[in-house]
Structures are given as structure tokens and as C-alpha cells.
Amino acid sequence: MSFGLPVLLVALLLVPLLAAVYVWQLRRRRRQAVRFSNVALLRSVGVGSHSWRRHVPIAMVLAALALLGLAAARPTVKAQVSASSSTIILALDVSGSMCATDVDPNRLAAAQAAVRSFIKNQDDETKIGFVVFSGFAQLAVAPTQNRDELLDALDAVTTGRGTTIGAAILRSIDAIAELDPNVAPSDAVDEPTTDGPGAIAPTPTPAPTPSAGSGGAGGTSGKPDVAPEIIVLLTDGANTRGVTPAEAAAQAAARGVRVYPIGFGTTNPTQMACTRDQYGGFAQPRVRDFGGGGGPGFGGRNFLVVDEGALKGVAQTTGGEYFAATDADGLTKVLADLPKHVTVTEQDVDLSAAFAVAAAALLLAGLALSIGRPRKA
């Protein structure tokens, strides 16, 4: 237990002082009582085997004063909060590679079905935000409990060109910052919005190094508290441009935001086939097209295959966990089991009100005992 205003704990010294005054008064009265020789009279004023009962109301009052002193000092404890009582930001990759048919009927359709089931299965208290990303990342739905709004946005997604995993993390951080004042918005980075034909991945802009106690929920200790909000990032490829996943993860970690990446798809992607509703108007990819092409990309990397190393690094940096799913059933299971893996997080809970209520209860109980105690005639 810690205290927000520890200096007020000095008020607790009044309790033993008052107890000492009470004991002194009792002894003073006892010395006066011995002057009487009539034993019956002594018993009539309460001197007997059950005389301790008359001290109970005073003890309750003193205990209540102690609790009030503790309440004034703003006691807090670390309490565990489950993910179901917080906010989840779903970041969904909608790059052209999500039309790959190695997952039936294609990756995007399977992902939509799994995410739809996940949204419907969350309890009514959970807020869900929806971020989509391809060549850029955008917040499609701010954190809400309106499931219909989320499902409508999910059904309306179309594919684009490019995969900006790092930008998706930053957009998710910003969505959390709008909701939680303890989480600072992401730091600005250079983020191009278009890919030219045959473009190569640009040199990422280094993210600022978080200073001790700056931004987020960390206070002045230099180590941020873990935020109750989490980011669930679903992608089937590798970052092709903009801020890198590692740099974005560093910003999330500095704010206490955990990221749970899910790598989706097989290591042997087949042809791509978008439906009319999924097609976003991007040009048919070429071998060196990084927005969802069908072959190896820059540096020999196949951007149709999950970059597990980068995603595992994001999870490790932010305190999350990486999951892999190679088919629709596997993805559905990962999302269904996610609350089991997203273990509880610790938050500071103010106990002032609880201590005040307990003090009031003791005062009332002491008053009731004092009034109800029979008095000798």
C-alpha cells in the first residue's frame, strides 16, 4: 500500500493520544471510586467482571478516527484489472496481400469472419476501437461499445497498397490517448502516404527516445505503469514503409501500452483474388511492388509472408505476446483465446472512500452500542 499524501499520516498520532487520555481518565475515576466502602455501590456504577464492555464504543470511535486519518492520506494499492474491463484497439491489415488465397476463400475474408466473431463475443463493458492500415493507417471507428458500428466498418473495408505496421501501432496509441488521459499521444514521425511504382522501403525516421518519467502513465519513476488498454494487431506481411514496427513499439512501451501481434497466412502464398467488395482499386502488383505483390520484395524478403521476427520484437518490447495463425480456424481460435492470454494488468486503486465508509460504519456502531448499553440506576 502507498499513500498519495503521506504527510497526513501524522494525524494518526492523535489516536494513541486520545487513547492515553481516556485511560488516564479511567484511572482517575478508579482512584476516586476506592474511597467508597460499599461494594454494592461500586458494582452499581459498573465495576465488575463485564466492565470491559463499556470500553467497546470508545474503541470503535478511536478505530474510526484511525481509518479517517488513513483515508485523508489517500491510500492506494495495486489492483489487477482484466482486459474485459478495459479497451481493445483492433488494427487490421487491409493490404493487397490480404487477397491471397492460401487461406480459403482469401485472407481478408477469413480475417473478417474471425474478427466479426471476436467483436460479437466481447462483453458489453468492453470498448473496441478499429484501425485499418495498408499504405497508411487510419482510425475507422473510435473506441466504442456500439457493436453494429464496428461490424459495419469491418464489412466495408477495402484493400490498399502498402503495409504500414508501425503507423498502425501509432494510430492505435493515438486512439487510446483520446480515451485515457494517462496515455500520451504518439510522437510525430515522417510518414509518406503513397508508394511509387517499384519504390523501395524508405529509411525510417528514428523515434525519439523516451525520457524518464515523460509521457504516458509512468509518473516520475521512469518506468510507465501498464495501461489497461491493449492493441491487437493482425497482419499477413511485413512493414514496407514509414516508421518501423520496432520504433512504434518503443513508443507504445514508453506509454505502458501492450501490443499483441497476430501473424496470419501461410509461408507459401498462392495467387491473389479479391472480391468486388474487397478490391480497393490498387494497381496489379509486380515482383518488386511492396504493397501486396506476389514475389520477393526489397532485400529478398517476400512481403506476402509474415515478418515474425519483427512482430515478436513488438510483443517483447511492449509486454504483449505474439500469436501465429495459418488458417481461418486457427485465427478464430487465437482471437477467441486472446482474453485468456491477455493477463490482468495492475492499476493504482484509491482506497480513500472505502476507508471513509468503514470509519462511518464504526462510528455508527459505536454510537448504537453507547445508546443501547443499559445504565444502572
How many domains? The number is 2
CATH architecture of the largest domain: 3-Layer(aba) Sandwich
Largest sheet: 6 strands, mixed
Shape: elongated
Annotated CATH homologous superfamily of the largest domain: von Willebrand factor, type A domain
Describe, in short, the structure shown.
The protein has 377 residues and is an alpha/beta fold. It is 37% helix and 14% strand. It has helices spanning 14-33, 39-44, 56-72, 107-121, 147-155, 165-179, 245-254, 308-318, 328-341, 352-372, and strands at residues 2-3, 75-81, 87-93, 127-133, 137-144, 230-235, 258-264, 323-325, 345-350.
In words, what does this structure look like?
The protein is α/β, with parallel strands linked by helices and 377 residues long. The protein has two domains: 2-77 and 350-372, no CATH class; 83-343, 3-Layer(aba) Sandwich (Rossmann fold), CATH 3.40.50.410. 37% of the residues lie in helices and 14% in strands. The chain has ten helices and nine strands. The chain has helices spanning 14-33, 39-44, 56-72, 107-121, 147-155, 165-179, 245-254, 308-318, 328-341, 352-372; strands spanning 2-3, 75-81, 87-93, 127-133, 137-144, 230-235, 258-264, 323-325, 345-350. The chain has a six-stranded mixed sheet with strand order 5-4-3-6-7-8, with helices on both faces. Strands 1-2-9 form a three-stranded antiparallel sheet. α7 (245-254) packs parallel to α8 (308-318). The longest helix is centred in the last third of the chain and has 21 residues, at 352-372. The protein is elongated, with a radius of gyration of 32 Å. The relative contact order is 0.17.
